[in-house]
Design a protein that fits this description.
Elements: H1 2-10, E1 16-20, H2 26-38, E2 42-46, H3 66-75, E3 80-82, H4 86-89, H5 108-111, H6 115-130, E4 134-138, H7 142-154, E5 160-164, H8 184-189, H9 192-205, H10 211-223, E6 228-237, E7 251-259, E8 262-272, E9 280-283
Parallel strand pairs: 1-2, 1-4, 2-3, 4-5
Antiparallel strand pairs: 6-7, 7-8, 8-9
Helix pairs in contact: 6-7, 9-10
The chain binds pantoate.
Length: 284
């Protein structure tokens, strides 16, 4: 892969990388489509990274559909696939990790200790191998996208990190490989996440900018669903991921909610229409 990428760079081509853990869905397809519009060649990776799963998490049962994924990548016009074995990525004696301080400890990081160390380490390795001009990530994993953008800046990486919109099912559920874990009843209940974000959006649109007010709006909606157990519901600054008191700058409304045993995340991105403007633009 290094040799292929080197060759593409020597030919002055713009390399796009779409890192994934497989179990590809239309969210991944949207990343690939964007990469195809902006780059050639487009390289995808499939690697279920053991280092970003906690000991009691779903590494063993994480959905794997390699053959179907390859067919989807072929149809989407991906030029090359990097699908290494765990032993290649982490050879015996592997002991070098990247840790993005601060961002790694909050919210997702607090609920999933070690998760972001695994993410930043594997993403740095993928970026090092391919050295793409652009690498594409979904905004559903907002904190991951922020962490990777921050790492790329701190480590002077040559890759531009491109964060793409969330893709949703017709009823609003954000696409995720983990949606496959939901039974019928849970699948219906899972729409409570987007429902809560819509309620927050409505409140913001009506001029309620107070984070406590928004948090109680989220809670009320989430608590109305018996199958939902809230891990966190937070309103944070979009750069630092620190809680805000008022929504007056670019912010994320973030949710992590268990539906039965399945942990789902979703978010609403809010930004002022123009610098200093009181009017907000919403990205659900
Ligand atoms: O978002 C994902 O699928 C993974 O966290 C990533 C970025 C491919 C790293 O393993």
């Amino acid at each position: 892969m290094k040799e292929k990428a080197r060759q593409a760079r020597a030919e002055n081509r713009i390399i796009g990388l779409v890192p994934t853990m497989g179990a590809l869905h239309d969210g991944h397809a949207s990343l690939i489509a964007r990469a195809k519009r902006e780059c050639s060649p487009v390289i995808a990776s499939i690697f279920v990274n053991p280092k970003q799963f906690g000991p009691s998490e779903d590494f063993a049962k994480y959905p794997r559909s390699f053959e179907t994924d390859c067919e989807k990548l072929r149809q989407a016009g991906v030029d090359a696939l990097l699908a290494p074995e765990a032993a290649e990525v982490y050879p015996k004696g592997f002991s070098t990790y990247v840790h993005v301080e601060g961002l790694s400890e909050k919210l997702e990081g607090r609920s999933r200790p070690g998760h972001f160390r695994g993410v930043s380490t594997v993403v740095l390795k993928l970026l090092e191998i391919v050295q793409p001009h652009r690498a594409y990530f979904g905004r559903k994993d907002a904190q991951q996208a922020r962490l990777i953008t921050h790492m790329a800046r701190d480590l002077n990486l040559d890759s531009e990190i491109v964060v793409c919109p969330i893709v949703r099912e017709p009823d609003g559920l954000a696409l995720s490989s983990r949606n496959a874990y939901l039974n019928r009843e849970e699948r219906k209940a899972a729409t409570v996440l987007v429902g809560a974000l819509q309620a927050a959006k409505q409140e913001l649109g009506a001029g309620h900018r107070d984070a406590l007010h928004l948090a109680s709006t989220l809670r009320r909606k989430l608590d109305s669903e018996p199958l939902a157990a809230v891990d966190y519901a937070a309103v944070v600054d979009a750069e630092s991921f620190e809680p805000v008191v008022r929504v007056s700058c670019a912010c994320y409304v973030l949710l992590a909610v268990f539906i039965g045993k399945t942990r789902l995340i979703d978010n609403l991105y809010v930004e002022p229409k123009a610098p200093g403007s009181d009017e907000l633009v919403f990205h659900l």
